[in-house]
Description:
Helix content is 65%, strand content 6%. The protein is mainly alpha-helical. The chain has a domain of 254 residues. The C terminus is likely disordered.
Amino acid sequence: MFGIEALDLARIQFAFTISFHIVFPAITIGLASYLAVLEGLWLKTGEGVYRDLYHFWSKIFAVNFGMGVVSGVVMAYQFGTNWSAFSDFAGAVTGPLLTYEVLTAFFLEAGFLGVMLFGWNRVGPGLHFLSTLMVAVGTLISTFWILASNSWMHTPQGFEIIDGRVIPVDWFAVVFNPSFPYRLAHMATAAFLATAFFVGASAAWHLLRGRNNPAIRKMLSMAMWMALLVAPVQALIGDFHGLNTLEYQPAKIAAIEGHWENHGDEPTPLILFGWPDMEAEETRFKLEIPALGSLILTHSLDQQVPALKEFAKEDRPNSTIVFWTFRVMVGLGLLMILTGIWGFWLRLRGRLFENRTFLHLVVWMGPSGVLAILAGWFTTEIGRQPWVVYGLMRTADASSGHSAEQVGLTLALFVVVYFALFGAGISYVMRLVRRGPVTDEGKQEGAGGPGRQRTPARPISAADESFEAGESDELGERN
């Protein structure tokens, strides 16, 4: 189909669906913990601003949760439809790990989500807070199992291969494989940062339009504290993750660095920018700093980083892609750190909520966390190629063998449906954000769905806002 093989189309389809999917769980993970913090602060202090923010962000959480569940179901089916050879080979490991996620995280969330979204005035404050905590814990447990499964594909251990299939022999080794702790910490922290900048951008947008009330100010203040404290921690986690990757996937590090060969005993330079050419086996137009690659990646000035030419051509990841996706991720991370520092400086001067240049920056940084997550996932997954299970099974051997026409048709359908369905969902979330929190809203009345007596309630119905034509144009005028 258009000169593209079925394998490439299957990879594009999986990349497309997971790129849509990862956005919603990332925000859901961060918002769940944010809601738990808000409710805990409200119970401790009794300040209504925390209650108002809880009710506002719980609506956005509900929409994200619903879209995350729907998009996640598709991911599971693709293992059987497009990657059946992989499922047959490694299903004895990945199948149980995904089942554990359902039995722990999904069941926990299902048991408490309804109470969290609709039980504010129907159960005691202690039980409601417990429900919010359990939903937050459930999202983190889900992250645990998903990262355990994916990390095993990067650094497999605790198994034997019997009759051409992977058979687990040590589940502790399977779950706590060498890359798992670093990747779990990196992803969870990324979700918190993505949420912080989403919340911060929402607050900055309202402040720029003159809606300066305690709830909006609290949103920005909490988001900037998170950026200041957590963004540098994420950089440290990333450093540890890089050292682990250098040990277990050196070809990926060589591709990320665009580093083709070592010269004598010279330490490895750091290539800041350039264009890795896979055919010519060189990085063109490069701007490099001598010895800095060795210092960053080995924490020494005398050790060299493995080079791409040390690996067979068929075992090299696509350096042209991962070289730039990695730099996008790191660049956004540095901007997050700088934003947090600038926010702290403005806070000390008492101008955190008034500096319009800073507020514009925070608005533009709103999607930075999500974009960094996508860039990071592209780096780690494309960098694993040509392996689907590193060192054990190549991606070319993992597909189901469908024709290019079949895979191309389903890919086209996915593109149309996803942009229509999730585009509408994202648009609705942004309309909720533009409306902003309602201050001093008091307690919600009614049973069942929000504001509806004895009406069955579904998670997404927690976002009960209605928008009249032209309402969004008037939001900037409200205080």
